[in-house]
Amino acid sequence: MGNCNKKGKPSRPSVRDPINIRGDKENKVSYAKVVLIGNSGVGKTSIAQRFIEGKFDENNKNTVGASYFQKNISFKDGSSLCLYIWDTAGGEKFQALAPLYYRVKSKYIINIFQNAHAAVVCYSVTDDDSLKQIDTWLNKLDEHGNIAKMIKVVVGNKSDVDKSERRVDLKEGKLFAQQRDLPFFETSALLNDGSIDELFQKLASQIKQSFTKEELHATV
Amino acid sequence: MKSKQKLLIERISDSSYPPKPFKQLPQKSKDFSLLTNQLSPKCQVQSTTSNSAFFNLDSSSLLIKPPFKEEKEISQNNSIAKKPQFKAAFISSKESPENKLSIQKIKSIPKALKITNVISKESLLPRKLAPPSGRQKKQMSVYSSSYHGNSDSKYLLNKHFDRLTTRIDKKFRDDKKPASTQKSRTLITELIIERVSMPESYRSPRYQNDITLINLTEFNASNTQGNYEPRLTSPKTSTRSIIKRFSNLQDKSCGRNTQPQYIETQESNNTNATGTGMAQISVSNGNQSEQFDISHQSSLIAGVEALSQKQSSTNSQNLAHQASDLLNSQTILGINRTLSFLKGKLQESKGPHHLRSKKRSQCDCSKQQYYDTSMCENCLIWIQIIKNKTRQNFDFQVIKKKYDQLNDREMVVDDENQIARDLFRTFQDIPYFSKDSDGYETLNRVLINLCKIDQSRGYIQGMNFIGACLLLHSDEVLTFYLIETLLKEYELNQVYGQEFLGLIKHFKIMEGLIQEKMPDLGDHLRLNQVEIEVFSSDWFISLFTSSIPLTKTTKLFTAFFKDSWVSIYKIILMILKYFKKKILQINEYGDILIALKSNEFFPQNQQSFDIKKSEIFWDQIFSLMDIKFGDVDEGFIQQIRIKYKIK
């Protein structure tokens, strides 16, 4: 997994003031929180795995709760952005009320969409229902996300399947994203065709454009 | 024979006998061989043949005083066997009048079995006793029919043999001195007598191994008598060495990696140099195991097959003749029946996997399989713990009835699609759970039936892993029972319930526990805004089953059934303790999370993963958690809840 700390950076003793810690890193690394959402079984974990480890695991397990990944992305100008990727469970029950999404703590609610800079909304090209459900996911983002300029991307996964298995055409997906004014990607986690790297590269550069440096330090 | 039966029946019918079976073993244990004889269908015919065997064995001077010490040890170790109540729970409720009668009688069996654990030399000698009276004959027939008709009695009988086999296994493992060979022989001889005088239909498939062992030993016994030309039998060729060679062969032909347990002397595997008759055939089987493609237990069949093949070849006709003589011999009890039984088994089966009975659980965690319920030893322990904890009766038939009713109930289950999606991602690296195999379908049914009993909860992701782990050690009905118990009695329902109130409660308790036990770490986590739920939610939801290596889930469930959620708290505390040093040096939210869910120890989402290293880690966690956090118990949790005001 990518280590977001730059090499040679000494580990500092814990400081009582958390704001101070963040302030220290201002000139070094920027952070962005990305959530992977979408129906169950569309391949969210596979996308994250392909991006982080460059592998595809056929014996994948369904995600319980959420799992966390991080990876550093370097840009041509020498700067870099560390992506905190939250891979969530897509099951119906957690969609409604995941403990990770909600935490009643004194008076305010923290959820997984809180402070998310970007959301990758996935569907599977073999499952037309998962495309229809994207609207539900987008509504959830609007409802629970607290960052107005959150970047949303629509991703059709499993582009490697045969034509006979395909239920959603490339055109159909593109049109769907266009209608909602969102960027669109079709990816394959199975094939090492670079489609997923491209997705995250473009996402990262867009995050960098849309958010100021200060905004890219708010985490979790 | 009749007189012996009388004595036996007197003892069986006397319900108060014996008051303390284990202590009185030496005196009371003489009649088991007779008991089994009576229970066999051809009791009259058999009794004569078995007597001749007894004499043979006796004259071969194999027998010495029975090892009472071992008996005591085993009886102490085998805590489950000590509890006849539990056995009685398995007694079926088949409703034919004959069975009803037999069920009543069966309840006295455990006692009868217990007292006959050791067969002394004297028991093998015929004794003069009065013929049974009419009443006793009637009782005898009832008793006998119970053994024919009722499968539960088979279960009990098999259980007894399990105990005996364990004892022999232990004996061989523990014995390092050649001097004790005699004792081992005695033990084996006991086994021979008991096993051979038991009708084959009562043997569970697991005993195919032992049957071959018996035949071998018997042959060895008769060999020393000089019935067969002892071509190269050296006086040093002990029973054990033959068994050792045998187990080697089995390992070879099974393709298993298990170490032979009976190692003592180095024996060459040369086909023509050592051994005679049976042993020789087996050796040739070892050499030709690829040809026969028999990879399960019945090396005996392999021997016979080898024999038939050898018969056609001109070179080894002598051997074939010898062996067929051996097989036809009357001195070897039940060997023909054994053979036909095994052959039948072989014909039924299509491959090595199918040699396994359907009644066998999928795990390799214990040698013992319980015939009628296909639960392994661990599952038995879980049920026992549940029984003690909830103070509810465990009646397999009742559960089965309930399950069958659920199975028949036609209902629209909302989560069917989700279950199908998740089954496709449940331990796909294990063939049993791969798509279109037995485990896949079974787990599907179990999960759907669980949804049927509570539609509002339905299926929660994570239940699939719990179900799969339990299914490995039991069968469909038991898995359903265990998960249902987890949901109802172990408050898993609250964790899965609306708004996840149970889960939030666990998070808060965990937070308090960390603060109490490791305040520095608690401060550090809070400072870096690492909440408990971000790293532990899947641990709570799937009870670690989706996170730890599958082989370690048995320990986990034993701990969880015993201590409920306290065990999960302890495990999490142990994990935090293990990584504490590392975490305290990290001041980065993401890096802390990654350190906590270290790739090295959590197999999820990992392709190249050192499973052994991970298993060692989890072994450490499970063995140390009661030492390091022994004071964490229900009372302690209650204090935490009061202190931190957790409802």
UniProtKB/TrEMBL annotation, chain A:
Pfam family, one: Ras
Record has S-adenosyl-L-methionine as a keyword: no
CDD domains the UniProt entry points to: Rab
Gene that encodes the chain: Contig14191.g15124
Name used for this protein in its record: Ras-related protein rabf1-like
Keywords: Nucleotide-binding
Positions with biased composition (Basic residues): 1-10
Family annotation (InterPro entries): P-loop_NTPase (IPR027417), Small_GTP-bd (IPR005225), Small_GTPase (IPR001806)
GO MF term list: GTP binding; GTPase activity
Region annotation Disordered: where it falls in the sequence: 1-21
From TrEMBL, chain B:
Region Disordered: start-end pairs: 1-26
Segments forming domain Rab-GAP TBC: 372-564
Domain of life: Eukaryota
Signal peptide: none
InterPro entries with a match to the protein in the record: Rab-GAP-TBC_dom (IPR000195), Rab-GAP_TBC_sf (IPR035969), Rab_GAP_TBC_domain (IPR050302)
PROSITE patterns: TBC_RABGAP
A UniProt-annotated Pfam family: RabGAP-TBC
MF terms in GO: GTPase activator activity; small GTPase binding
Official protein name in the record: Tbc domain containing protein
